[in-house]
Amino acid sequence: MYRTHTCGELRKSDINSKVILAGWVQKVRNKGFMVWVDLRDRYGITQLIFDEERTAKDILDRAQNLGREFVIQIDGTVIERASKNPNIPTGDIEILVDKLTVLNESLLPPFTIEDETDGGDELRMKYRYLDIRRTPVRDSLIFRHKVAQEVRNYLSGQGFIEVETPYLIKSTPEGARDFIVPSRMNEGQFYALPQSPQTFKQLLMVAGMDKYFQIVKCFRDEDLRADRQPEFTQIDCEMAFVEQDDILNAFEGLTRHLLKTINGVDVGEFPRMTFDEAMERYGNDKPDIRFGMEFGNLNQVSQHKDFNVFNSAELVVGISVPGGNSFTRKQIDNLTNWVKRPQIGAKGLIYCRCNDDGTFKSSVDKFFDQADLKLWAEKTGAKPGDLIFVLSGSTEDVRSQMSALRMEIGERLELRNPDEFAPLWITDFPLLEWDEDAQSYHAMHHPFTSPQADQIELLNSDPGVVKANAYDLVLNGNEIGGGSIRIHDKETQALMFDRLGFSEAEAKAQFGFLMNAFEYGAPPHGGIAFGLDRLVAILGGQETIRDFIAFPKNNSGRDVMIDAPAPIDTKQLEELKLKLDL
Ligand code: ASP
Predict the structure, then answer these.
(1) Minimal-distance CA residue to ligand 1 atom 6
(2) CATH homologous superfamily of domain 291-415?
(3) What's the CA-to-centroid distance between 529 and ligand 1, angstroms?
(4) Among 171, 174, 237, 429, which residue has the most ligand 1 atoms within 8 Å of its CB, making it the best to mutate?
(5) Cα–Cα distance list, 80 to 3, 47, 94, 319 (Å)
């Protein structure tokens, strides 16, 4: 037997018991006549004691020579600790060791295996197996397991069946590039790894599976943005015989269950907001509604004077910063420079102080009088003591700039309460998005999303305005899930492919299997997918998803531990009949 107990288990009530423990040497404190070793495993830390009086000399000697991260096994007796450590559950006891076996030695780890480590990101990823020995990383993985387990429990309880779908498939468009796998047995042919199991889950609905879910890896070859992973995990779901409300209710239930069981938080009914409304009020389709600072449209109250910057703008928008009148000139300049950075791209930032006496002082006093500024305050909901910021330009630019500024100020003023969970459904997304570069429409969600029933006609006359039966679930300003009611008839699907610029032959080659399936009694259906990595990070109160992934890729999509991607040898290339022309 390697161990009778784990290193997190023994308590005062175990005093005098004979035990065997095994684990890693976290720390050795050597006073010569006395040696303490912190022994660590997944479950905790237990202190071992060796001393001149009670321990055999050869064992004391060997204890003195133990190195960090050696794997050892000990036999000993649980005794009461002289100086207790209230910070750890085993802090009342220690083990007086009478047998010590070194199971394996260890090189000196390249960073400290402590809660606060001295290792940088890349180094920690290179030695991820050591990083996972650290409590915060290990706990994050255990936390992830717990969330996944709750998802399975809840959905199974609601009658969902987890079905695995294949990884070696054909392109499923979700707006990214495919990762491609060459087929040795089918020369010159390739599989694509799924960007999502979208088409398969729809086929499962045609197959009568009714309520499907899967915790599943998805692969998207995108230019990596911060905190994106080329492979990531979804909680992928689909239901048949449902309307949008059925889906929203079902997955509101799941989210509420997770918030309750994982975070102990009760949230009421989730608010719902249309895409258009979100864009008008927050300039963003995933607004963080934990704080206000909603947009005030100032077009009517700012375009009647000689100020050309506003007059020539498509949109003039203001937000009111609570208590912002206390900002110094320097703070305002700093925010002005912040929005002028190329990443944000504003030309300037206009402000208006709302004084306690009800007067206003703006950076454009030359053009606007007190009565005008009062209207600005009304439109932005500003009160005495607040500060109004105003941006103008094209609707699209102004919304994204102001939304970024709102989030930045929210962050700086700590308005985003980390203990609060504010979910929000965004509905009625546009079906199509105009792609300037390609001069064509592409699907905002994916090509299988159904247009709203009363708008199908518009697909011919004015495709850009057509709304979809598509929705996102937003939590604290993060999109955690998205889905849609699907097209389930061949004609509409064909029309959609046509609008997206597929020729009939292309649509048939790529999605013939789905169109065929639709001819065999496809039920109305719809679904949603949650990004598990992000969901877990948010529930865990963290910003980065990487800490919740056992073996993440770095910012260039590399696994620095196994050193992938890597060249393959000539023999493999030959077998695959691939020629590299580098
Ligand atoms: N397949 C979609 C996605 O990955 C989710 C869905 O429509 O259910 O975003």
Answers:
(1) 483
(2) GAD-like domain (3.30.1360.30)
(3) 5
(4) 174
(5) 20, 11, 6, 62
Write down the pTM of the prediction: 0.94
Cβ < 6 A, ligand 1 pocket: 174, 196, 198, 446, 482-484, 527-529
- Over the stretch 164-202, which tens digit does the pLDDT of each residue have? 999 999 988 888 999 999 999 999 999 999 999 999 999
Please tell me the predicted confidence (pLDDT) of residue 269.
Answer: 96
Cβ contacts of 352 within 8 Å, gap of 6 or more: 318, 360, 361, 362, 363, 364, 373, 376, 377, 382, 387, 388, 390
Residue nearest to atom 7 of ligand 1 (CA): 483
Predicted local confidence at residue 169, as pLDDT? 96
Which superfamily does CATH assign the domain made up of 139-167+195-272+424-548 to? Bira Bifunctional Protein; Domain 2 (3.30.930.10)
pLDDT in the model for residue 457: 87
Instruction: Indicate which atom in ligand 1 lies nearest the CA of residue 486.
Output: 7
Residues in the chain with pLDDT values less than 70:
none
- Residue 103 carries which side chain, given as an amino acid letter? L
pLDDT number for residue 171: 82
Angle 177-180-182 (CA atoms, 0-180°, nearest 5)? Answer: 160
Nearest to 276 by CA among 400, 399, 140, 428: 428
Q: Which residues lie across from 46 on neighbouring strands?
A: 39
Beta carbons within 10 angstroms of residue 406's beta carbon: 24
Domain borders along the chain are 12-104, 139-167+195-272+424-548, 291-415
Contact between residue 568 and residue 575 where contact means Cβ atoms under 8 Å apart: no
CA–CA separation, 70 and 106 (whole Å):
5
12-104 CATH: 2.40.50.140
Burial class (CB in 10 A: 0-12, 13-18, 19+), 224: middle
CA–CA separation, 499 vs 529, rounded Å? Answer: 25
Question: Given this chain, do its domains 12-104 and 139-167+195-272+424-548 carry the same CATH topology?
Answer: no
CB 42 within 8 A of CB 5: no
- Give whole-number Cα distances, 440 to 1, 396, 469, in Å: 67, 18, 21
* Widest CA span in the chain: 93
